[in-house]
Amino acid sequence: MKQTPLLCINIDHVATLREARKVGYPSLIEAAILAEKAGAAGITVHLREDRRHIQDYDVFDLKTVVKGRYTLEMAVSEQILEIAKKVKPDLLTIVPEKRQELTTEGGLDVMSAKSKIKEFLQEVHSVSLEASLFVDPDLKTIEVAKEIGASRIELHTGTYANCKVGSEEAEIELNKLIKAAEFAHSLGFVVNAGHGLTVENIKPILKLPHLCELHIGHSIIASAVLIGLENAVREMKEAINIHE
Hints:
alpha/beta; 8-stranded parallel beta barrel; 11 helices; 8 strands; globular
């Protein structure tokens, strides 16, 4: 039987709510505890250079309570890496960042930043940290990611997620993701995926071969506003564990 991927919950948008008023709540610590209590395999946060939601102290505080996989998303940034060296998360996921974007808009441009990312990965590995590259489902990009020393990738599912569920466009994007996952595995990558995934569109994503982890945030936190965080996590867990 095909292994069900681990569900890691991105709690950035709990911090977005907190930072809207800067009054100290809702608590990221409580959110992480509740998410894992409900069955999450781990917690993911993105420490952006502009600190729009997650703050430095969050990254340290969460390290003390997360029992499962602890993933830190970050740009190619020496400043953030210095924090990561102290925190020692289980995984660093290297993502692109633009100051004007609302959220991450696509995969890393590995082609144009090949040398810079390669040097950064070497530094990450030199301090015994594991890194994943957040990339679009493009075979050439995945091939170059291997050339520059990456061992994990997270496939950007945002383009698929933006398509109408069940549409021809969604099927086309899904097939790209399936081919990318198969190719990445053939090169020796551990394959993760995430971005824009919801209870409504997650089922086809489970067709991706060799999928290790799913990193899902916004839709779960949005649902939590209405039904509670534990219920929202369990709802996604149930969607992922559907077996036909």
